[in-house]
Design a protein that fits this description.
This protein is of the alpha/beta class. It is built from 13 helices and twelve strands.
């Protein structure tokens, strides 16, 4: 072999041994697209749980699957365009997380690409699936059924603050079931003889204004509705609740972990892992219409004892014994 041939052969060997991502090339990997109404910064732990679910099914990002992320950052109006772009990308699976708006946007974008959703409402009522056991279309997923727990959260919160005469309910007016949820919460407040102040917010400024109203109205108990926009703003909400000394209950552990008083609901990390598992099963050939919609098997109560002390609240021993986790 002459010198020129030897150099050419060595160069080819180096290129072949170089990983595809280092060469700036991309092999033909199956694509899993994650569409979220939330933001990547505050969703980092949940995105990691989703990837763990994929890994449980044998798929690792950049090894044997490519994950494409699209984030609406709390702006639901962006979701249809993001979903349409993912459909044109010809993703093998679209994972729609962050609530009902993401799932509906994905459903409108494609009738053929498999979709795995994560929502907090009834997917049958929303028209996403034909039934929980046999979805029958190109959609399946996990339903959190947390939007029906508002009344329960109000009841649990009043165990901590029984003397609060006025409570507040904070919700996003763009939420699909805002009106019936409001009616259900008003009925729940009347049943325990409490005044309920309903406040709506879909921007950071409106959240701040809502807390000003709560302070002015001397609100003594706050229920924050399950909403992806509120999840993305949890640090702001927790800080304002603390600044205004308002005891508040939330739907997921992430709020008391960030300094909120308490939460009651299913585990969001478990739900994100499960949608990853389902996406992996579909990549292996499972039909989404034959995968039953998963539901949480238990709900967890998480208390932040430090926040309770700061608010001057003594947590009853009965609640401490019932709590799944007490953050000190």
């Amino acid at each position: 072999m002459d010198r020129r041939s030897a150099v050419r052969s060595a160069a080819c060997g180096v290129i072949a041994a170089t990983p595809w991502f280092a060469r700036g090339q991309r092999p033909s990997l199956p694509i899993v697209a994650l569409l979220s109404s939330r933001s990547p910064e505050e969703s980092a732990t949940h995105a990691a749980a989703f990837r763990r679910g994929l890994a449980d099914s044998g798929f690792v990002d950049r090894e044997n699957v490519a994950i494409e992320y699209r984030w609406a950052r709390g702006d639901y109006a962006r979701l249809p365009a993001l979903a349409s772009a993912l459909a044109k990308l010809r993703a093998n699976v679209i994972v729609a997380v962050g609530g009902v708006p993401s799932a509906l946007a994905a459903k409108s974008a494609t009738e053929t690409i498999p979709i795995v959703f994560l929502i907090g409402d009834d997917p049958v009522k929303l028209g996403l699936v034909a039934s929980l056991s046999r979805p029958a279309r190109n959609l399946t997923g996990v339903t959190f059924v947390t939007t029906d727990l508002g009344a329960k959260r109000l009841e649990v919160l009043y165990e901590l603050v029984p003397n609060a005469s006025t409570s507040a309910f904070l919700l996003n007016p763009h939420f699909e079931d805002a009106a019936p949820l409001t009616q259900a919460m008003q009925a729940a407040a009347r049943s325990i003889g409490r005044r309920l102040l309903v406040l709506q917010a879909s921007t950071e400024a409106q959240i701040a204004a809502s807390f000003e109203t709560m302070s002015r109205e001397r609100v003594g108990a706050l229920v924050v509705e399950n909403d992806a926009f509120f999840d993305s703003q949890r640090n702001q909400i927790v800080a304002l609740a603390s600044r205004n000394s308002i005891p508040a209950i939330y739907h997921i552990r992430e709020f008391p972990a960030a300094g909120g008083l308490m939460s009651y609901g299913a585990s969001l990390l478990d739900a994100y892992r499960q949608v990853g598992v389902y996406a992996g099963r579909i990549l292996k050939g499972a039909a989404p219409g034959e995968l039953p919609v998963e539901q949480p098997t238990r709900f967890e109560m998480v208390l932040n004892a430090r926040t309770a002390r700061a608010l001057g609240i003594a947590i009853p021993q009965t609640m401490l014994l019932r709590a799944d986790e007490v953050i000190q």
